[in-house]
Amino acid sequence: MGIKVAKFGGTSVADANQIRKTGEIIRSDGDRRIVIVSAPGKRFDADNKITDLLYLLKTHMEQNAPYEQVLQIIRDRFLETERELGVRAGVAEEFRVIEARLVEGASADYIASRGEYISAKIVAAYLGFDFVDAAGLVRFGAKGKFLREETKEALGATLSACERAVLPGFYGTRPDGEIKTFSRGGSDITGALAAGAVGADVYENWTDVSGFLMADPRIVANPKAIDVISYKELRELSYMGASVLHENAIYPVRLAGIPINIRNTNRPEDKGTMIVADDIAEEQGRGQRIITGIAGNRDFTVIAIYKNMMSAEVGFIRRVLGILEDYDVSVEHIPSGVDTVSVVIADRYLNGKLDDIIDDIERKTQADSVEVFENMSLIATVGSGMMSRKGVAASLFAALADAGVNIRMIDQGSSEMNIIVGVENEDFETAIKAIYNVFVPTG
Length: 443
Ligand code: ASP
Known about the structure:
Strand content: 15-25%
CATH topology of the largest domain: Carbamate kinase
Largest sheet: 8 strands, mixed
CATH architecture of the largest domain: 3-Layer(aba) Sandwich
Low-confidence stretches: none
Bound molecules: aspartic acid
Order of helices and strands: EHEHHHHEHEEEHEEHHEEHEHEHEHEEH
Number of helices: 14
């Protein structure tokens, strides 16, 4: 018998109806033996996520504001789900404990973690699986550093001894037993850790979209879905803003060579996106498709520095980067020419520092000119299929020229897996559409 680790996100466990769908998916494949759940998410657009309400509950407590109403909303949602599913998960009793701990001043991490904890209790009761608490298994150090090896061992030992189990995502414990959560969206990480620890055949991540799309559907009408993508390609696209999965969820499974399958609980018939090892995706890429996806972000500033004979000056780029480090500004890209170097910076890091940075660069590097281009967007075209294929860059630039888009910057990673262009913010959408249309055949 194989083993699939299946993580279900907030919308997949948002209410009794969604949990029934989740149950059907799990029961339809006997290999789905380890299940990780998030806290209930939104049932409709204007709804609240349980995790947000739990943080709100803690804030009320801290501000000495009446907290009962918020607690009641949260409790009622869980009680309703328990009742509608006809299970006994001890929700009322759990809430008595939570309220007592809240009043005693329990930490925000503890309070927030209860969403996943009760969600897992309900799903375990509904499926007839063991409930396995993440406390004690997902381990953090005394200062909050995540302990990868200890966690792997503890999770592996406990989960391997279970026939079928449900584990709450998002949190673990410090050595003193205090709850510590991952960052938001962290149930993806717990799922990946469990998959790595039991050596799963696949890590399924069930959400409310059928995987990754080749481009943002708000920009390109009906973009094609990505059926297979490598971890590396995914990293490039996520960095540029395509988000479905928590970034830190990739490492534990990538390390173990376990594929991730992003699936849609509301459309289980869709195959979703498979995230696989780089060589496997590359092989596929070399086959037919040229690009895997396009992603981008707005609001960057480019500082372009020119100095005659820069190329012969030792330490020039280090000096420029040193200045940015002094201002605590992180750099996205550093395209360079013979006597020019540009630094690309996300505007959110600059807040009010730009003029001082320019002054410093002029003074400390004795540059001949320092030019600033504001309101820039970066667009990454990613795909292992581009590697060593001739004419890809030419087609991309031609497409942008035909669309009347002026390219202000080009950066091609040495892996040849991505080409990043800088365009004006106002050309952002036109550029993405043009690139998509030239590489993705219609129909
Ligand atoms: N419930 C947590 C959050 O909303 C963790 C998760 O769902 O992954 O961030």
